[in-house]
Amino acid sequence: MKKLTVKALVGIGMLSSISYILMLLNFPLPPFPGFLMIDFSDIPALIAALIFGPIAGILVELIKNILDYFMTGSATGVPVGHLANFAAGVLFILPTYYIYNKMKTKKGMTFGLVIGTFIMATVMSVLNYFVIYPAYTLFLNMPAMSAPEIRTVVVTAILPFNLVKGLLITFVFMLLFARMSPWIKKQGSFKTAI
């Protein structure tokens, strides 16, 4: 791993703060339960990954969630939701980054974002079933849900929500990418970071 340059550190810091602000601007989508919120905070993390490398994208996801945990807290007292958000962000940006790095075209970016969406939605469904929902019930001292109840919530709410969220982020990012791709490529060509 190469040393972080000052440019990379400043870029990661700026993109993390933008990501945190975007995380605060979350909103619900009517057909889904109120605790599932859409935000576009993964976009700065994806930009960081494209410019400085995948570790930079992971760092932006991490810093954003740490900031949010300390500023807004957690209903459980433990950052279960923040860990879930971090996992979802990483599962979305890493496949996108690696696929785009292989193809280096707008079509490659679109393909990467769609694959990233499906990987994120699928793995988060599994994590919700086995880890996240049980953790919430444990830390909130709620009665445990049965396996069929959790499966129903995951299949009817979590999976479709993550697919919709990923596709919305894909749409917004592709609008930005159409304008920013020359700048991102120029910044990425000076990659001396992670």
Describe this structure in words.
The protein has a single domain, classed as Arp2/3 complex 21 kDa subunit ARPC3. It has six helices and two strands. The protein has helices at 6-24, 42-52, 54-72, 80-103, 106-139, 147-189; strands at 27-28, 37-38. The longest helix has 43 residues, at 147-189.
Helix-strand makeup class: mainly alpha
Largest sheet: 2 strands, antiparallel
Strand proportion, as a percent range, falls in under 5%
Count every beta strand, where a strand is a DSSP E run of 2 or more residues: 2
Instruction: Look up the CATH topology.
Output: Arp2/3 complex 21 kDa subunit ARPC3
Short description:
Probably a riboflavin-binding protein that interacts with the energy-coupling factor (ECF) ABC-transporter complex. This protein is an all-alpha fold.
How do the helices and strands line up, and which of them pair or pack?
Blueprint (H helix, E strand, L loop, with lengths): L5 H19 L2 E2 L8 E2 L3 H11 L1 H19 L7 H24 L2 H34 L7 H43 L5
Antiparallel strand pairs: 1-2
Helix pairs in contact: 1-2, 1-3, 2-3, 2-4, 2-6, 3-4, 4-5, 5-6
What distinguishing features does this structure have?
mainly alpha, cell membrane, membrane, globular, Arp2/3 complex 21 kDa subunit ARPC3, transmembrane helix, 194 residues, single chain, 77% helix, 6 helices, 2 strands, transport, ECF_trnsprt_substrate-spec, two-stranded antiparallel ribbon
